[in-house]
Write a structure and sequence with these properties.
This protein is of the alpha/beta class. The chain is 31% helix and 16% strand. A hairpin with a 6-residue loop joins strand 15 and strand 16. Helix 2 runs parallel beside helix 10. The chain is globular and about 70 Å long.
């Protein structure tokens, strides 16, 4: 396997790998990672779909990419997905998956046209004082000290910040900045999370720094992530003959391990209370999704809080069983044994009363019933004790959604602190109480909050014990390589498999690790698309530097005459032009 960039290999079709007709493929889990592996096996590996079997403990595919309507509770989405144009592996996959919305188009075509016609951006990123503009005004408000701290982590080696927390490399001035407010609420980072992962995010998305305050860099699907991404991919795989076994819990995988060679030899499962399994030979490939950010999620309802389930966690226990067999299979407890640090709660609110959308419109400055971009990303309530953020995507968010309803998604980073209206932590609140807190921060008159929350909306809170587990501080070896050294027939995929080329908590990572797995195990003669190289582009770096300084020019040391002479000399070079274009040095007036 190797990496490539440019369109030469992007448009190439690999030849059929030798021996693929003698192989089968087995999958542990039916999340996006497994669905992507199956698609790459069929498209690039030219493996017949009927030789692919997916084992899933749940009753439907998609994993964390969800979106359902529960008959009594209402619409539910556990999380949202922010995407961008440089998710190279994701779009490489979905260019080949037919849209179920537009005849003759791919999912990528559909997504591309949607975001061309209706580009995303926010008109109000943050509020305070009950729905009023927080006046972050697109500024990062980074002090000189905080700017130096960002530069230091950006230039540090991976080894220098392994196992370090974010609050070990940044100080109070950084945490008081608008930059941290934008960053932490957009990506769900906490001060105790991995400084290494923050570094990787800075490198990966340096080309989007300018769009952090208004989300102009983001792109979203038409509907919820299940209907827009999972369903067309799942239907295509069924059409190819892929076999899915739901309500099947994989409990262990056996391996034959020697110093030179590692082979998966058996998958063990429980289905309908009965133990079963399959023996594996050299030509039986196994793709194992390890860990789960949505494991043990619990849905409350409008009158019942969601529960924090700290009991047995099958996905994590499976990884623990596997990891005990070889040091190269990772260290699951680095990520999955810290529930107080990895939990947070989201909620899906469906409006039933026409008065509520008017308050939404007052904040987002758009008609939420237009079918176009509404909030353009999350609106963060800056002075919320819960640190609540909420968003309204294009409506309808579900195909089954009545035309007079709005589906809102919200989450809080501080689920164990009392609210501002509801004097309880979010984790103890039923949906009605979550709605009350949200309406309070929308600016609904105090006398109307109780009635509107009781009868004007339906809310489903969801507690997720492991949702930021992949952000826990880590070092090399804590996550297994996608294809461990010596493996002949198995790979690890998903958010907890290691590829040094990308950062986690993205749909891209859930497709990149599968692509690398397939291309390595089958020897696909086509490059895996390289991560977009913006971190090596001097123009991007200068533009990001200017934005992080809120447009402030560099103040060169020394007397004014010397500064003027230096700038004149720079103007005679390409460097001077770059510095001027980025706004880091003043533009000289044109000569007369």
């Amino acid at each position: 396997m190797y990496y490539s960039s440019g369109n030469y290999e992007s448009f190439a079709r690999p030849r059929k790998p030798e021996g693929v007709d003698n192989k089968t493929a087995w999958f542990v889990g039916a999340g996006l990672a497994s669905l992507a592996v199956a698609a790459f096996l069929i498209r690039d590996g030219q493996m017949p779909g009927a030789k692919i079997t997916v084992l899933e403990r749940l009753t439907l595919p998609g994993g964390a990419l969800d979106g359902i309507k529960e008959p009594e509770k209402g619409f539910v989405v556990r999380g949202g997905r922010e995407m961008e144009n440089h998710f190279e592996c994701l779009w490489d996959l979905f260019r080949s998956i037919p849209s179920i919305e537009i005849q003759g188009a791919s999912v990528l075509d559909e997504f591309y046209w949607l975001n061309k016609d209706d580009p995303n951006y926010s008109l109000q990123r943050a509020t305070a004082n009950r729905g009023r503009d927080a006046h972050t005004d697109g500024m990062f408000s980074l002090s000189a000290k905080a700017q130096k701290e960002i530069m230091k982590i950006f230039l540090a080696t991976r080894e220098e910040i392994e196992d370090k927390r974010i609050d070990e490399v940044f100080g109070d001035e950084f945490f008081a900045s608008n930059f941290w407010l934008y960053w932490r609420t957009m990506f769900a980072f906490e001060e105790w999370h991995s400084a290494l992962e923050m570094k990787l995010y800075l490198h990966r998305f340096i080309h989007h720094v300018g769009g952090l305050p208004d989300f102009s860099t983001l792109k979203f699907t038409k509907y919820n992530q299940y209907e827009s991404l999972v369903l067309p991919l799942y239907r295509w795989l069924l059409d190819q003959g892929v076999v899915f076994h739901f309500s099947t819990e994989v409990t262990d995988v056996d391996f034959d391990i020697t110093p030179e060679r590692k082979q998966a030899t058996r998958i063990r499962w429980v289905r309908g209370g009965t133990e079963g399994g399959v023996d594996l030979g050299r030509d039986d490939l196994v793709f194992i999704t390890i860990g789960s950010l949505t494991e043990n999620s619990d849905n409350g309802d409008h009158h019942t809080p969601a529960k924090l389930n700290e009991g047995p966690a099958p996905a994590w226990d499976l990884w623990r069983h596997i990891a005990a067999k070889d040091p190269s299979f990772g260290h699951p407890d680095v990520f999955g044994a810290h529930i107080p640090q990895t939990k947070w709660e989201s909620a899906t609110i469906t409006t039933l009363d026409p008065r509520i959308p008017r308050y939404i419109q007052n904040i987002c400055k758009r008609d939420p019933f237009s079918g176009k971009v509404v909030t353009g990303g999350i609106v963060t309530v800056k002075d919320s004790r819960w640190l609540m953020s909420w968003t309204v995507n294009r409506q309808p968010h579900f195909k089954q959604q009545p035309p007079d309803q709005i589906v809102v998604w919200l989450y809080s980073l501080f689920v164990d602190k009392p609210g501002d209206y509801v004097s309880k932590p979010m984790q103890d609140c039923a949906g009605e109480e979550v709605t009350q807190e949200w309406l309070y921060h929308l600016g609904v008159p105090l006398g109307e909050i109780g009635e509107l929350a009781a009868t004007g909306a339906k809310c489903v809170p969801v507690m997720m014990p492991y949702v930021t587990s992949f952000f826990m501080p880590r070092k090399a070896g804590d996550r297994p390589d996608v294809v461990p050294a010596g493996s002949v027939n198995f790979a690890f995929i998903g958010q907890f498999a290691e590829t040094t080329r990308d950062c986690i908590f993205t749909t891209e990572y859930s497709v990149r690790t599968p692509m690398e797995a397939v291309y390595q195990l089958l020897g696909i003669e086509r490059g895996v698309p390289e991560v977009f190289n913006s971190t090596y582009d001097i123009r991007t770096l200068l533009a990001a530097t200017s934005r992080l300084r809120d447009g402030a020019e560099f103040h060169l040391p020394g007397p004014a005459a010397l500064r003027k002479w230096l700038i004149a000399k720079l103007d005679e070079t390409e460097i001077g032009e770059l510095l001027t274009d980025s706004g880091l040095v003043p533009e000289r007036p044109a000569s007369r």
